[in-house]
Amino acid sequence: MPNAGNNDESDRSAVILLSGGLDSATVLAMARREGYACHALSIDYGQRHRGELSCAADVARALGAVDHRIIGVDLRAIGGSALTADIDVPHHGSVAEIGSAIPITYVPARNLVFLSLALARAESLGARHLFMGVNAVDYSGYPDCRPEFIRAFEATANLATRAGVEGRPFTIHTPIIAMTKAEIIRAGVSLGVDYGLTTSCYDPAADGAACSACDACLLRRQGFVEAGVKDPTRYGTTSREFGR
After folding, report:
1. How far is Cα 167 from Cα 169, in angstroms, rounded to an integer?
2. Domain-embedded: residue 144
3. What is the model's pLDDT at position 237?
4. Is residue 242 part of a domain?
5. What are the φ and ψ backbone dihedral angles of 171, each rounded to 5 degrees?
C-alpha cells in the first residue's frame, strides 16, 4: 500500500486554528503564502468575547481559506477563567502594569483542547500540518503558549493517532512564536492582512468596541505603535489614551 505521507495533497493541506485575533490572522496569511490549502478552524468555547467568531469568519474569507468550520465545546462548564466565568477581566493603565504571574484570563487547558480538536480535524481531512498563532514573547504568561508545550503535543499527536502510528506524522507550525507583536504586525501588513477585521479585546463593550485596558488590548496597541502602523481597532468612547 503506498505511503500516504507521499501524497502531495496531504503534504500541502493544513488546519489553521483561527480565533479572529491578530496573531492567528497573520499565521493564516503565512500558511497561504507557503502554498498550503488552509482549512480554518475556530472554537466556540463559551467565551465572553464571542464577537471573535464572526471576525474569524471574515478573516477566513478575506485570506482565502478553503473552508471555515466552528466547533463548539463549552469550557464554561469547567470555569476558572475570566474569559468563561463571571469574573472581572483585569484592566491596567499600561503594558508595564501587566504582571508576570499567570493571569485570571488563562483558560484551563484551552490550547490543549484546541490542538486536540485541530488534530482530529486534520486527521479526518488527511492533512498533516497544523498551524497555531501562539506567541511566547508578547503574551500574558500563558503556559500553553510555550515552545516546550508545542513540542510535547506534537510528539503526543504522533503517538495517539492512526496517521501517526502508520507513518504519516503531523507537524505543528508556530511561525510567530518567537516574534514580537510589532514584528507580527509588520509581517501581516506585508502579506495583506486587514487587521481591521480582527479583534483582540477580552472585555469588549456591547457594541463590540475594544476596552483598551485589558492585557490583550494593551499588547495589541503597543504592537501597532512599535510597528509604526496605524491601529484600525475601534475603541470605546471611554477608552484611555495609549500609554496613560
Report:
1. 6
2. yes
3. 62
4. no
5. -120, 130
The packing angle between helices 215-227 and 181-190, to 10°, is 60
How far apart, in whole angstroms, are the C-alpha atoms of residue 202 and residue 220?
A: 12
Do the domain assignments include residue 236? no
Quote the cell numbers at residue 36: 498550503
Q: pLDDT tens-digit profile of 146-205?
A: 999 999 999 999 999 999 999 999 999 999 999 999 999 999 999 999 999 999 999 999
Domain interval for residue 91: 7-227
Burial (CB < 10 A; 0-12, 13-18, 19+), residue 195, is buried
> Residue 205 burial (CB < 10 Å; 0-12/13-18/19+)?
middle
pTM here is 0.92
3-state SS class at 107: coil
What are phi and psi for residue 8, nearest 5 degrees?
A: -60, -35
What's the order of all strands across the beta sheet hosting 129-131?
A: 67-72, 37-44, 13-17, 129-131, 171-173
Angle between helices 22-33 and 51-62 (to 10 degrees): 20
> Is residue 139 over pLDDT 80?
no
* Highest mean pLDDT, choosing among 45-54, 66-75, 95-104, 231-240: 66-75
User: 239 falls in which pLDDT band (50, 70, 90)?
Assistant: very low
Number of domains in the chain: 1
Q: Is residue 135 part of a domain?
A: yes
Q: Which CATH number does the domain housing residue 73 bear?
A: 3.40.50.620
